[in-house]
Amino acid sequence: MSNENNKETNSKSQDAMVYDELGKPTLPDFDTLRDIARNNPAGLERLRIALCQKVIEEAPEHSRARLEGLMFQINARRQLAKTDLEACEDLSQMMNASLKRMQAMLKDLRTIQSESILLSTRNYLGEHSPTEDAEVAAVIPFKRKFKRNR
């Protein structure tokens, strides 16, 4: 009987996977996801892991270690949570903290950029001061070659 249950579970978990034309797992439509969540939660979890792994594998080489570390953190937080809602809230807070750090970095970058532009403008104006040019420049009047008739 246990072999039959294993076969049934395996066939359900295979049903949870949706593949693209290259044979890689792909995200199914909402209705399909809802059905998998209701009828095969373990299959949905396998699909989640397969899709995350696909993203990591398709990422540039220099990003893979960071993504794998992030995936480890996500999985650990999900396991530590007592309920699915607690896991969702924890991951939401984790994402929000990351976005705040990114926002702070962008703000710092804008500040550095503005200061750099200001300093380079000051240096340029310091080397080519209009008042210095006015002191050494001679104004040459233009003379008309012919008179206008009014």
For this entry, give a set of tags.
disordered N terminus, mainly alpha, 76% helix, 150 residues
Topology summary:
Layout: H1 2-16, H2 30-39, H3 41-58, H4 61-80, H5 84-127, H6 130-136
Helix pairs in contact: 1-3, 2-3, 4-5
Verbal overview:
Helix content is 76%, strand content 0%. It has 150 residues and is mostly helical. The chain has a domain at 16-80. Helix 1 packs across helix 3, helix 2 crosses helix 3 (41-58) and helix 4 packs antiparallel against helix 5. Residues 1-14 have low confidence and may be disordered.
Give a brief outline of the structure.
76% of the residues lie in helices and 0% in strands. It is mostly helical. Helix 1 packs across helix 3 (41-58), helix 2 (30-39) crosses helix 3 and helix 4 packs antiparallel against helix 5.
Structural category is mainly alpha
Number of helices: 6
Number of strands: 0
Order of helices and strands: HHHHHH
Share of β-strand residues: under 5%
Radius of gyration over C-alpha positions, nearest whole angstrom: 33 Å
What is the approximate shape? elongated
Distance from N terminus to C terminus (CA atoms, Å) equals 116 Å
Sketch the major β-sheet: none
Mean pLDDT across all amino acids: 82
Low-confidence stretches: 1-14
Helix content: over 70%
